[in-house]
Write a structure and sequence with these properties.
Layout: E1 7-8, H1 15-22, H2 26-34, E2 43-54, E3 57-66, E4 69-75, E5 81-87, E6 91-97, H3 102-114, H4 123-133, E7 136-142, E8 148-152, H5 157-177, H6 208-216, H7 221-254, H8 268-320, H9 330-335, H10 342-366, H11 375-385, H12 390-427
Antiparallel strand pairs: 1-5, 2-3, 3-4, 4-5, 6-7, 7-8
Helix pairs in contact: 1-2, 7-8, 7-12, 8-12, 10-11, 10-12, 11-12
């Protein structure tokens, strides 16, 4: 009977470990799969297969083949982890799928027609966007179990072919050694394909426990990067609103409303000229209003995104601060920010309090002489947060400065804590 089923991950995947795995680092890939596999089970194949989605809002696909099973690990951008596996002897069949390019050609032609040829300038972007959601892949059908889906980028289809070929060979070797009865299953004596040319022992390889510990205090670098991108877009939206205001004033001076009214003694030529000026004014004003509405809507969406990213980062930052130096709990720090009116008061505890906690930990643990967590930026963020209307336009930019400085202080604490963890493990 198959064991292929989604297995909920009890521990998060470290961000730095995931980045190494996305670069096909063999040790990082093995470390990520080792938390689900038996220690004595050799890994024959482990590869990064690609990403489904756009930028930071996608899921990474990783595949693994051992002497007993084929497995896949899907890691999302917001902590989602999905692990699936199936025993080799229970696999009935498998396929490798590569989609046709017809859909891409139709999208390109449609975009070129709708934009009057401007889309040709963005042809690489259109192609990348299409292949971000239209993936190649490999599917294993498992007897009495869940099918294993492994998607991959089109340029990485050779990895899917290699996994297909190796899994077939491993399955034949496995079936030839597994008895028909349910008991007494023997393991394969096949020599695994080495992941690295090094000769280090299995006990010397990085263990998942250390990686999981490190991730529990991650500085949220990806959150800061995502916040930076959204902040740039928000700055463009604010620029669009400001430009709309300037264009409105310019339109009023170019076509003053007093010229739209006239007396009965005006000549036909003057009357025609003023009517044309009025029509131009109204047409230009409609364009300005449309642009201002678009900038306002996009700005509102971006403000909501910045708020979500900022609160997620705030919660992770309080979680990363050493417990003995916290002024409050992470859940309280974030939860009380949702209380109307009270959040104006609580902002002076959530932001400067985090900076004080990190600075306190730095003085005690790192013997730092000067505060480095950006306490002044945190106070400025809290002050701007309580000023209506001004907070929307200025608070995100000051808060980003606080994020960068607080992350730098946390990085130093993370390094120290990780080193102490390694020394404790080596002593034991």
């Amino acid at each position: 009977m198959s064991t292929a089923s989604p297995v909920p991950a009890s521990r998060p995947i470290p961000a730095n470990l995931l980045m190494r795995a996305c670069e096909d680092d063999p040790q990082a890939l093995e470390t990520m799969f080792r938390q689900f596999l038996p220690e004595d089970e050799p890994v024959l194949f482990a590869r990064y297969m690609g990403k489904l989605g756009f930028w930071w809002f996608g899921s990474h696909s990783l595949a693994c083949l051992t002497s007993r099973r084929v497995a896949t690990l899907r890691v999302g951008s917001f902590g989602e982890v999905l692990y699936q596996e199936g025993q080799l002897e229970d696999i009935n069949s498998a396929i490798v799928y590569q989609p046709s390019k017809l859909g891409l050609y139709i999208n390109i032609i449609f975009s070129v027609i709708c934009t009057f040829g401007v889309a040709l300038l963005f042809l690489p972007l259109i192609t990348k966007t299409y292949y971000s959601v239209k993936k190649c892949g490999l599917v294993f059908w498992v007897a009495e179990g869940v099918s294993i889906y492994i998607f991959c980028n089109r340029k990485l289809i050779r990895k899917a072919n290699e996994l297909m070929r190796r899994s077939g060979l491993a399955r034949e070797a496995r079936v030839s050694r597994v008895p028909n009865s349910d008991s007494g299953v023997q393991s394969i004596v096949a020599s695994p394909v080495p992941l690295t040319p090094s000769t280090e022992k299995a006990s010397e390889r990085p263990q998942p426990t250390y990686r999981q510990f490190e991730y529990a205090h991650q500085p949220g670098t990806r959150l800061v990067s995502a916040f930076k991108v959204v902040l740039i877009l928000f700055a463009l939206a604010l620029t669009g609103l400001a430009g709309s205001g300037v264009a409105t004033v310019s339109n009023e001076f170019t076509y003053p409303e007093s010229s739209y009214y006239w007396d009965d003694d005006l000549t036909d030529e003057e009357r025609t000229r003023r009517e044309e000026a009025r029509d131009r004014y109204r047409e230009r004003q409609r364009t300005i209003e449309f642009a201002a509405a678009g900038s306002a809507i996009s700005g509102a969406v971006l403000v909501f995104s910045l708020t979500v990213l900022g609160l997620v980062w705030l919660g992770r930052s309080w979680s990363a601060a050493p417990r003995q130096y916290r002024f409050t709990s992470p859940s309280r720090a974030v939860g009380l920010m949702f209380v109307p009116l009270f959040n104006f008061f609580w902002a002076f505890h959530a932001f400067p309090g985090l900076a004080k906690s990190l600075d306190w930990a730095s003085r005690e643990e790192l013997e730092a002489d000067e505060p480095t967590a950006g306490h002044n930026w945190a106070v400025a963020t809290a002050i701007l947060f309580v000023i209506p209307f001004v907070n929307v336009a200025t608070c995100p930019f000051v808060f980003f400065g606080f994020m960068k400085r607080a992350n730098a202080a946390r990085d130093r604490l993370i390094t120290l804590t990780a080193q102490e963890s390694v020394s404790l493990r080596s002593d034991s």
